[in-house]
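> forwarded from #structure-qc
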């Protein structure tokens, strides 16, 4: 049976179109999805590369620091926490102001005239007692926080004007997380207000302090 040339051309065209569709579905579409997922990812580092975390809120400032691994693992060090916690600052609750008390000048029994230039009193120098003492951190809480940072993704990206930055609470964030990696790179995550449903939080990653125009912010699930 002789096949017409037009039929051969149609078969070649169908094969070419089918191959193009297959290549697009098998190669291009997954690559596009992977690129889109990468843009929504908060950070690209791994949990093992995180050296320390500094968490600042209106109530407190704490530092989480990974303890160095011993050169030779020992049985005594096997059960120790791999993270240490320092309470850097705790916001003091305001006390009610009291009216000043009236005081009478203290009488000098010997009628001595105080010197014009008394020697200044020196304030005590800061001692080691004022330095925050590290304590073992709760490993499950640290692991949960690291997982949220490493695996966290934005639900959507928003191009925000300075006015929206204020509306989303990112000009004065509710919490700031500063991340230091083992290679000394640093990252910063600002957490602002919740979205009206309460399921998401507006966040900004690595904000540039000198940038005053529109900025890219993320809407993420609350930590």
């Amino acid at each position: 049976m002789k096949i017409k040339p037009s039929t051969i051309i149609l078969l070649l065209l169908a094969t070419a179109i089918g191959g193009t569709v297959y290549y697009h579905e098998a190669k291009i579409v997954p690559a596009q999805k992977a690129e889109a997922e990468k843009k929504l990812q908060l950070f690209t580092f791994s949990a093992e590369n995180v050296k320390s975390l500094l968490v600042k809120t209106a109530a407190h400032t704490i530092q989480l620091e990974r303890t160095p691994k011993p050169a030779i693992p020992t049985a005594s060090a096997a059960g120790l926490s791999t993270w240490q916690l320092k309470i850097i600052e705790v916001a003091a609750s305001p006390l009610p102001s009291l009216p000043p008390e009236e005081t009478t000048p203290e009488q000098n029994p010997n009628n001595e005239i105080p010197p014009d230039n008394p020697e200044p009193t020196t304030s005590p120098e800061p001692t080691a007692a004022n330095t925050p003492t590290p304590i073992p951190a709760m490993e499950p809480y640290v692991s949960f926080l690291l997982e949220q940072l490493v695996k966290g993704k934005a639900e959507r990206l928003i191009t925000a004007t300075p006015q929206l930055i204020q509306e989303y609470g990112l000009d004065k964030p509710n919490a700031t997380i500063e991340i230091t990696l083992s290679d000394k790179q640093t990252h910063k995550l600002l957490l602002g207000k919740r979205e009206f449903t309460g399921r998401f939080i507006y966040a900004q990653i690595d904000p540039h302090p000198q940038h005053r125009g529109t900025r890219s912010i993320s809407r993420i699930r609350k930590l």
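QC bot note: The helical segments are 5-40, 139-151, 162-167. The radius of gyration is 31 Å.
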